[in-house]
């Protein structure tokens, strides 16, 4: 899929991985709506990118992915402004084992909300033109992070939901590919503030640090390059792509049907 003329939405697009994703999509020709709760960073990124790549290449929309109403309004505004939606990156996420219900609401329910509302614009069965949805999960969506059980659960949920949606799309003919992006540790604010977010599991901070020491830390650009592959490679749907500092690898899941 070439990105020239394509229209993308990135949630949590103002900072960290979402910012790098927004930048790489714009650099490759897409128009991008970045949705975030951080208005200062979101507006500033959008202004910078429009100066660099031309007016109306990006649009910042204030949006909390916990609100169905706000996501619906943001998608509507994106479609009206740019003329449709082809790509959704459900990326917004937090770590907070103390406020664990909020973690589930943003990380898992936010992805489900974003996906169902995206279908209203993208599903070929209801007048959309198809496209691709990439959900940011994590390596913690494939294996456990002992210091973050709820975070781990949300990311396993994102991987399962994404794969099931890919299967539903293939069987029903939505014309939409669905993939999960599963990075290891990435140098962002989320990672640098982690020690205060572990709640009941604060005593396991050292265990997390040992895993960090073993597998290393990625840059946001390395992660964004992998997202670009999931967006542009039309053979990829129902995939979970793990990203490590040493390289990337598609997860091979067991098959239960002969
Ligand atoms: N940093 C890491 O080590 C890894 C992060 N991830 C995942 O990548 C995604 C992005 O994380 P980072 O860039 O590291 O975090 P970050 O904290 O650097 O950036 C997250 C962005 O999402 C926004 N956001 C937070 N809650 C929101 C909400 N309710 N609605 C809309 N926007 C919201 C923030 O304002 C911020 O701009 C998350 O889903 C995270 O779980 C996955 C693997 C590793
Ligand atoms: C601490 C919260 C970080 C949140 C960001 C995030 O999603 C990072 C994930 C990074 C890597 C996850 C790796 C999980 C690995 C485990 O499944 C397991 O393989 C590790 C076992 C470690 C051991 O030495 O036994």
From TrEMBL:
Coiled coil: none annotated. The keyword Lipid metabolism applies. One of its GO terms (cellular component) is cytoplasm. Gene3D superfamilies: NAD(P)-binding Rossmann-like Domain. The keyword Thylakoid does not apply. It catalyses: resolvin D1 + NAD(+) = 17-oxoresolvin D1 + NADH + H(+); resolvin E1 + NAD(+) = 18-oxo-resolvin E1 + NADH + H(+); (15S)-hydroxy-(5Z,8Z,11Z,13E)-eicosatetraenoate + NAD(+) = 15-oxo-(5Z,8Z,11Z,13E)-eicosatetraenoate + NADH + H(+); resolvin D2 + NAD(+) = 16-oxoresolvin D2 + NADH + H(+). Belongs to the short-chain dehydrogenases/reductases (SDR) family. Catalyzes the NAD-dependent dehydrogenation (oxidation) of a broad array of hydroxylated polyunsaturated fatty acids (mainly eicosanoids and docosanoids, including prostaglandins, lipoxins and resolvins), yielding their corresponding keto (oxo) metabolites. Decreases the levels of the pro-proliferative prostaglandins such as prostaglandin E2 (whose activity is increased in cancer because of an increase in the expression of cyclooxygenase 2) and generates oxo-fatty acid products that can profoundly influence cell function by abrogating pro-inflammatory cytokine expression. This is 15-hydroxyprostaglandin dehydrogenase [NAD(+)]. The lineage of its organism: Eukaryota, Metazoa, Chordata, Craniata, Vertebrata.
